[in-house]
Design a protein that fits this description.
It comes from Cyprinus carpio (Common carp). The chain has 197 residues and is of the alpha+beta class. Helices cover 38% and strands 25% of the residues. It is flat and about 70 Å long.
């Protein structure tokens, strides 16, 4: 590693370039630098290509070479943007609840297919939960194992119809994925047998 030496640091707002141990060139603006751990945070051009976004990359300087300061920032960096703490707390709570739902399904012995169906429904309708091995949607529809369209029970109406459509689409998508995988496997088998001949 060429930089930083003893007592050296990177100024926030400076632009640096380095090459990772994998040979990848990183270039960006320094967002943060921790000298004791030799960790550098860079704001780089977006990999998505969207101009209003940036990639934030954490770089362990122990695994890079040719660190070059392109431009050094002499003035005081701007203040950090304030964070919406309530939004962050709500997001963390929602993620925790999501993980707990997944853990409950695993501990209750729900099949993988049932867990995947639950996730597919939950993407569209947030109001769904587990009740033992049954999926409860909007407190109106119950889907029991083996989680097929015929296993959707509830009061006839738009909620039941909507859930049945989601279940139908899920199984259609699963079948199309399986057929694509089978055709890819068959093509690979044909290639392998042609190469071995």
């Amino acid at each position: 590693m060429a930089a930083p030496g003893p007592g050296e640091y990177f100024s926030v707002g400076s632009h640096v370039s380095c090459i990772t141990c994998l040979g990848q060139r990183l270039q960006g603006e320094v967002v943060a630098f921790d000298y004791p751990s030799k960790m550098l945070t860079l704001k780089c051009a977006p990999s998505s290509g969207k101009p209003n976004l940036s990639d934030v990359v954490l770089v362990n300087l122990a695994y890079v070479s040719d660190v070059d300061v392109i431009t050094d920032r002499a003035e005081t960096p701007p203040h950090l943007a304030s964070l919406n703490f309530n939004k962050l707390v709500n997001r963390a709570r929602a993620e925790k609840e999501e993980k707990l739902l997944q853990a409950y399904a695993v501990s209750a012995g729900v099949s993988v297919e049932g867990q995947q169906l639950f996730q597919a429904i939950h993407k569209t309708i947030k109001d769904c939960k587990w009740q033992e091995k049954n999926i409860i949607v909007m407190d109106d529809v119950v889907i029991s194992p083996p989680y097929q369209v015929d296993n959707c029970k509830g009061k006839e109406g738009s909620a039941l119809s909507h859930v049945r459509k989601i279940v139908e689409k899920y199984f259609r998508d699963m079948e199309s994925q399986k057929s694509v995988q089978h055709s890819q496997q068959a093509q690979q088998t044909q290639k392998d047998s042609a190469l071995s001949s």
